[in-house]
Design a protein that fits this description.
174 residues; mainly beta; six-stranded mixed beta sheet; 1 helix
């Protein structure tokens, strides 16, 4: 799409599985190419200590405000003899007004090759950064957005970087 162009799509949606009521429907989706330039990040969130995960915990625990763009980075290895872990990164609107947020998440792995995963994440992040790629989400008050979700088996590594900029709203939890 060229800047400013709109594309209207009808996307088929199917829900099925154990303990689900089977449902088939269509969702109307409008895609717009918005000319958006990344702002210089004011904050950096880093999660790498401990590098080897031995217990569950929060990767990031902070708040974001309008006008304070942030970059985040994580790189973790699940311990060789540990239970499988699920990694989640979420943004939650904790205010009473909607929040409009520009996001550009990049994640790599899981893989048993730590260096490859880190290299893959950094390479993809700088590719998206150079092109100012990403998308806008609007979070209603009290709602949460799942930014990343990864299953990490024992001995595997995950790595990711991202850019977040809240352009409208009050405060969100990251």
């Amino acid at each position: 799409l060229n800047p400013g162009q709109l594309l209207k799509l009808i996307i088929p949606v199917k829900v099925a599985g154990a303990n689900y009521i089977k449902s088939v429907n269509k969702a109307n989706v409008t895609v717009e190419n918005v000319n958006y330039r990344w702002q210089v990040p004011q904050l950096l969130f880093l999660s790498n200590k401990p590098e080897v995960i031995r217990e569950d915990g929060d990767l990031f625990k902070s708040k974001l405000k309008v006008g304070t763009p942030a970059r985040y980075f994580y790189h973790h290895v699940n311990a060789r003899h540990a239970a499988w872990r699920r990694l989640y990164i979420t943004i939650e609107n904790i205010s009473k007004i909607p929040a409009k947020i520009f996001i550009s998440p990049v994640g790599a792995g899981p893989s048993s090759d730590e260096l490859f995963v880190g290299h893959q994440a950094v390479t993809e992040f700088f590719h998206t950064r150079r092109k100012h790629q990403g998308w806008f989400i609007t979070l209603k008050p009290g709602t949460r957005f799942l930014l990343e979700k990864r299953l990490v088996k024992n001995g595997q590594t995950v790595s990711g970087l991202g850019y977040i900029n809240m352009v409208e709203g009050a405060e969100v939890s990251f």
